[in-house]
Design brief:
Length: 328
């Protein structure tokens, strides 16, 4: 196996070394900020990229210097053949770091296969430790199953992060208990500022400063952690007596666009340049018109050069976009 050392830069001098890949729009939960209660309009099977097509894109990304791929969705574990795809990402696409983000419902049943496939880390999304609040947020049962998966992943020594979205009037009371998980175990708990995208635009976020103040009051001073954990934009803090770190991903109050390192591939093959923008390159068209590997590389490079300087969440309306298609 060889990893590529070249790194592609965008028009603003940012190194692009990370790709988020959405493998399905489908999900077994209906989170209020992401999916409508009745689920989503079915995308025709033939309109979705097949795994071998996604693999060609990821191989192109690796050739151009991308070293990390996050597999996301919808809920990636509902797509059949996912663990085989992850194995192929590690083995044939030569990706150094392949990680998964999941709602955790099906995770415990896939842990052995994921480890065998070479998964490097898993993020589990969990916004509450209260069963009733979980049902209200996800419009589903399954709270115990998610907790069980988290426990099983810890037992299996998988590198684990928990992602929570604080929402005004919904889960304020969970901020401290969720952070508490990082005290007891070496798991990093990250608070993601709700972005005004799709259904998320109808719910009020809780800004990072407020979350941090609540945590400081509960746990004492949070010390900035200067090391790097993973591929993402989170800023991390240590608290006294904590085994894991507390992280913040705050696109609105603490924009990280200046150091953004990523592109996003949707399930239907659009290589998106920014979460808040529809500008991108249709890689499905390139692949299905018989495009060579060189053509895919060139299309990937052109998407990199289309990347905007920053998001426009403050100025534009994004209610028509869907996080379940983009993958977060
Ligand atoms: N189903 C998987 C999961 O929930 O982890 C993967 C897909 S989900 C779209 C990825 C992440 O996006 C989740 O952590 C979710 O909480 C987050 N998310 C969804 N909508 C969001 C929004 N409007 N603002 C911030 N984060 C959001
Ligand atoms: Fe499903 Fe994840 Fe969206 Fe929740 S956030 S509805 S788990 S895709």
């Amino acid at each position: 196996m060889s990893w590529y050392t070249f790194v592609v830069q965008d028009g603003f001098g940012r190194n692009i070394d990370y790709l988020r890949v959405s493998v399905t729009d489908k999900c077994n939960l209906r989170c209020v900020y992401c999916m409508p209660p009745d689920g989503v309009k079915q995308v025709r099977h033939s309109d979705m990229l097949r795994f071998e097509e996604v693999l060609r894109v990821c191989s192109a990304a690796a050739r151009l210097g991308v070293c990390g791929v996050k597999v996301t969705g919808g809920e990636p574990l509902v797509r059949r053949g996912l663990t085989g795809f992850i194995r192929a990402l590690k083995q044939s696409a030569c990706l150094k770091n392949v990680t998964l983000t999941t709602n955790g419902l099906l995770l415990s049943g896939f842990l052995d296969e994921l480890l065998e496939a070479g998964i490097d880390a898993v993020n589990v999304s969990l916004d509450t430790l209260n069963k009733d609040v979980f049902r209200a947020i996800t419009r589903s049962d399954g709270f115990e199953q998610v907790l069980y998966s988290i426990h099983a992943a810890q037992e299996a020594s998988i590198s684990l992060k928990i992602n929570a979205v604080p929402m005004r009037g919904v889960n304020e009371a969970d901020i401290v208990p969720l952070a508490e998980l990082a005290r007891q175990k070496n798991v990093h708990v990250r608070f993601i500022e709700l972005m005004p995208l799709g259904l998320g635009a109808r719910i009020l976020p809780i800004p990072q400063a407020e979350v941090k103040a609540a945590l400081t009051q509960a746990f004492g001073t949070l010390e900035k952690f200067e090391g790097r954990l993973g591929n993402g934009p989170a800023s991390y803090y240590s608290a006294a007596g904590f085994a894991g770190k507390i992280g913040f991903i705050s696109a609105l109050s603490h924009s990280f666009c200046g150091s953004c390192n990523r592109l996003r591939l949707t399930g239907t093959g659009l290589l998106k340049t920014c979460l808040s923008s529809d500008i991108g390159v249709d890689l499905k068209a390139v692949i299905r018109s018989g495009g060579s590997d060189a053509a895919i590389d060139a299309a990937f490079r052109s998407a990199v050069m289309l990347k905007p300087a920053g998001h426009d969440f403050h100025t534009n309306q994004h209610v028509k976009k869907n996080m379940y298609s983009i993958g977060g």
